[in-house]
């Protein structure tokens, strides 16, 4: 089922009924949030047992702020929301390009997870501000917007929040979606609730999509002014210190290295179990397997899984790998480039189970060729382009993953070609940061012009 905005003369006849449907949809959505809010708080407290940062500044989750808005005179102010670590990393080259275009830029940076907030702190300059984005409850969103009064907001990738979007539109705040992606599966879910989709997507001022397919699906849900600007993840700079760290780890391992990265579970099934059950016998004599789960709270369960299979394992948190290990568990945050830098080749998870796949671009940037499973809808175009370049191989199941990985280990010339292809693939698709920064900078300048004395309010125009 596709959703399209009404055209021309149809709009005048249908808009009142459409608006009524949208208001009703927003009320039902808000009611659901009211019912779920206590569970959301309980989840924060539960997760804070392992990471106290989850309960830090809890009032901000409900729109209560002590931090002042970024203040640098009349300099343009931008609010950017990067929900977690991956989006924050993608935002880094975008902010770098934005600051080149507008050196005096003031930044309000918001997040949802502690990993995102921790990484985001490195992007701040004197006078910037960093807080949690509140839950999508009307009064919490209203407090956030009234406290900081951003003229332009940028949401990274997939963060579509109905009450937030409508509140920004009602206040004349231009809300943009940067590095936007929308899989066919997600678009179908939104299309089941057309009134809510149009209330949300129709409130956006624009979107910079990663691919033409993403752009088409966003337009179908009612987003106006959609441009195709590429994927910011290609523009992330290599970290020389992390690369050197990975090379030290490889030397300590004293043999070949295969990484199983960003592995996940879904509905009781886990990619680690599938991969360990299919792992060839005697592999430890040929290569160290480095297992880096997507969520670190699963490390204890993975240790039990390895013990049950008689596999000798160690933890990154307890030191470097050694030649006596079968499996080394990467239980750290922010070191993914180092794991890829130590590796001959990698499997990137979220793709054996129907989860859409995780970021393969980070591996290619370290000249590490990648095997992906059958489920890659979150990175469909990047996977297709990587396959064409010779940097990515596909497997239909866990046994196929090992066949692909060991095929590279057994064929040194093929592995060298794949590593060179991965490096070239990563380099060839850069440029999204500059394009998206220019697109956002134009919106900031337009907003500044509208706010000049005598220009009229954004709501009047």
Notes on the protein architecture:
The structure is a single chain. With 461 residues, this protein is α/β, with parallel strands linked by helices. It has 2 domains: 18-230 and 432-450, 3-Layer(aba) Sandwich (Rossmann fold), CATH 3.40.50; 240-428, Rossmann fold (3-Layer(aba) Sandwich), CATH 3.40.50. The chain contains 17 helices and 16 strands. The chain has helices at residues 8-47, 85-101, 114-120, 138-148, 162-170, 184-191, 194-201, 212-220, 240-253, 271-278, 299-308, 336-341, 361-365, 380-389, 398-410, 412-428, 432-450, and strands spanning 77-81, 106-111, 129-132, 152-156, 174-180, 206-209, 226-228, 256-263, 265-266, 269-270, 287-293, 313-315, 327-329, 345-348, 370-372, 392-394. The strands form 3 sheets. It has a 7-stranded parallel β-sheet, sandwiched between helices. β4 (152-156), α5 (162-170) and β5 form a beta-alpha-beta unit. α2 crosses α17 (432-450) and α4 (138-148) packs across α5 (162-170). The longest helix has 40 residues, at 8-47. It is globular, with a radius of gyration of 23 Å. The protein starts with 7 loop residues before the first helix and ends in an 11-residue tail after the last helix.
Q: Please indicate the count of domains.
A: 2
Number of helices: 17
Give the class-level CATH name of the largest domain: Alpha Beta
> Taking strands numbered 1, 2, ... along the chain, how are they ordered across the largest sheet?
3-2-1-4-5-6-7
Distance between the termini: 34 Å
CATH architectural arrangement of the largest domain: 3-Layer(aba) Sandwich
Cα-atom Rg, whole angstroms? 23 Å
> CATH homologous superfamily of the largest domain?
3-Deoxy-D-manno-octulosonic-acid transferase, N-terminal domain
């Amino acid at each position: 089922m596709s959703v399209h905005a009404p055209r021309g003369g149809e709009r005048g006849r249908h808009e009142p009924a459409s608006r009524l449907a949208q208001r009703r949809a927003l009320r039902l959505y808000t009611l659901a949030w009211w019912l779920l809010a206590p569970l959301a708080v309980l989840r924060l407290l539960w997760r804070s047992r392992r990471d106290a940062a989850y309960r830090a500044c809890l009032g901000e989750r409900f729109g209560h702020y002590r931090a002042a808005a970024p203040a640098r005179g009349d300099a343009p102010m931008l609010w950017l929301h990067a929900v977690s670590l991956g989006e924050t990393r993608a935002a880094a080259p975008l902010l770098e390009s934005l600051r080149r275009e507008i050196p005096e830029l003031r930044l309000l940076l918001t997040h949802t997870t502690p990993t995102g907030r921790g990484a985001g702190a490195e992007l701040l300059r004197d006078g910037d501000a960093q807080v949690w984005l509140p839950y999508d409850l009307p009064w919490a969103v209203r407090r956030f917007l009234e406290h900081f009064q951003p003229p332009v907001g940028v949401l990274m990738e997939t963060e579509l929040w109905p009450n937030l979007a409508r509140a920004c539109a009602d206040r004349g705040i231009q809300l943009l979606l940067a590095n936007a992606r929308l899989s066919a599966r997600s678009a179908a879910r939104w299309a089941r609730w057309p009134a809510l989709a149009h209330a949300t997507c129709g409130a956006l001022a624009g979107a910079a999509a990663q691919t033409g397919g993403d752009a088409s699906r966003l337009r179908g849900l009612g987003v106006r002014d959609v441009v195709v600007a590429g994927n910011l993840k290609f523009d992330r700079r290599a970290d020389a210190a992390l690369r050197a760290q990975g090379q030290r780890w490889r030397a300590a391992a004293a043999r070949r290295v295969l990484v199983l990265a960003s592995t996940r579970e879904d509905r009781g099934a886990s990619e680690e179990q599938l991969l360990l059950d299919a792992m060839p016998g005697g592999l430890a004599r040929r290569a160290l397997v480095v297992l880096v789960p997507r969520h670190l709270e699963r490390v204890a369960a993975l240790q039990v899984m390895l013990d049950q299979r008689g596999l000798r394992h160690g933890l990154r948190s307890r030191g470097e790998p050694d030649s006596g290990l079968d499996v080394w568990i990467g239980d750290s945050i922010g070191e993914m480039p180092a794991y890829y830098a130590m590796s001959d080749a990698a499997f990137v998870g979220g793709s054996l189970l129907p989860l859409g796949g995780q970021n393969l671009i980070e591996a290619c940037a370290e000249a590490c060729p990648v095997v992906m499973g059958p489920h890659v809808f979150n990175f469909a175009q990047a996977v297709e382009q990587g396959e064409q370049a010779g940097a990515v191989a596909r497997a239909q199941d866990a046994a196929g993953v090992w066949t692909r990985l060991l095929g590279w280990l057994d064929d040194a010339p093929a592995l060298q070609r794949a590593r060179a292809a991965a490096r070239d693939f990563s380099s060839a698709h850069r440029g999204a940061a500059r394009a998206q920064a220019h697109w956002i900078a134009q919106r900031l300048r337009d907003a500044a012009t509208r706010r000049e004395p005598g220009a009229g309010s954004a709501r009047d125009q």
